[in-house]
Amino acid sequence: MSQQSKNVIYAQAGGVSAVINASAAGVIEMAKRHPEAFNKIYAARNGIKGVLEEEIIDVTHLTEDKLDRLKIQPGAAFEACRFDLDTFEENPGQYERILEVFKAYDIGYFFYNGGNGSMVTAQKVADYCTQNGHPMTCIGVAKTIDNDLALSHCSPGFGSAAKYIATSLLEATMDLYSMHNTSTKFFVLEAMGRNVGWLTIAGGLVKNIIPEVPLLILPAERQFNKTKFLNRVRDLINTKGYCVCIVSEGLTDENGNYISIENVEHTHNNAYTQLGGVAHTLSHMVAEEFGCKTHSAIPDYLQRSASHLVSQTDWEMAYRAGKAAVQAALDGLHGVLPVIEVIDTCPLVWRYKNVDLMEVADLEKSVPDEYLTEDGMDITPAALEYLTPLIKGERALAYKHGLPDIRPLEFNYVPQKLTRYIAVK
């Protein structure tokens, strides 16, 4: 499409990952290589909220040192947001403000790094600006540890989180094995993912190291049956002496109710349910039923921020996601999301292909039935075949005083040009 501007703005949205900043580096480096197409390169602090509030960073001349640090940085270097735009009918002022900011900074390209919901936001923004005389090219940059991005083989961010989950469960299994005769007999780990169980089934990767591990896997895709669960725990303790378990935070009972809810956050438009605590619930259930010592753990943010356990495969997917987004813009595309397409599986060979943003925005990819056993408490060999390549490879990390040398990057904000605006959630 023809452009009135060649300036770029990049922003990060939603829950972060250990490799989201590799995508940021991919966008910045690729855009810098094409000065004939892109002029200034900006980043917004706090995603679309930063656009509204005109918190803008000029990253056009980001130093090589900062780019290198960006590539290993967990969290969101430009600070991600959980902020959904209202509909135009409810709040036209938000859209008018975004258009005002984009005009002020001569923005012609918008790269939004996030999950499904972020893609809706990106498309809304681009459509409104274009309809009001400021043509925009809008490209999504894929990211989510939940792995629920439809039409993509996997999501950048998932492989590293899966590697952390499987490693932690493996180490905890060795601990439990060494103590079960006189101490703890049941340990349960809780994985993120809301209503999908991809990170939960990643716990099954332990089977690649300990094939006969006494492991229960409880993904969100299968409803929880207390009697069947306790019977299976009993069998494993009786035959193996102990039982390890991994459970989805979004596990539901046979009536579709969450087993555990941490909190409900109310906004003027939505009620956001914060999940958490199901591992503790199951641990208490087993302790009460069998009169044995149990333990539970909730890795929570740890599983999405473990820069010391990044999967090389996942890092490459994240870095190339940023580059693929810029390439899509160079190819004249608009309203697309580059997703991962597998060319071969042995070894894993993949590439990025572009799909329509709105085609993927409202879809959620669940763990397929063929990855789960009939009783819903274990995974199949097909699941292991899918998961194993995604966690392969390690990345070297610099250490300082015995700790990973990671700390918040400092950026200089451009002087604001417009009147102050406060975005209300």
Total number of distinct structural domains: 2
Number of strands: 15
Strand order of the largest sheet: 3-2-1-4-5
Largest sheet features = 5 strands, mixed
Rg over alpha carbons: 23 Å
Averaging pLDDT over every residue, what do you get? 93
Please give the share of residues in helix: 25-40%
By CATH, the topology of the largest domain is: Rossmann fold
* Highest-level CATH class of the largest domain: Alpha Beta
**What is the 3D form?**
elongated
Q: What CATH architecture of the largest domain do you see?
A: 3-Layer(aba) Sandwich
Number of helices: 13
Q: H/E element string? A: EHEHEHHEHEHEHEHEEEHEHHEEHHEE
Ends distance = 33 Å
Structural class: alpha/beta
User: Spans with pLDDT under 50 lasting ≥5 residues?
Assistant: none
Strand content: 15-25%
Subcellular location: Cytoplasm
GO molecular function: 6-phosphofructokinase activity; diphosphate-fructose-6-phosphate 1-phosphotransferase activity; metal ion binding
Binding site for substrate: 144-146, 192-194, 249, 301-304
Cofactor: Mg(2+)
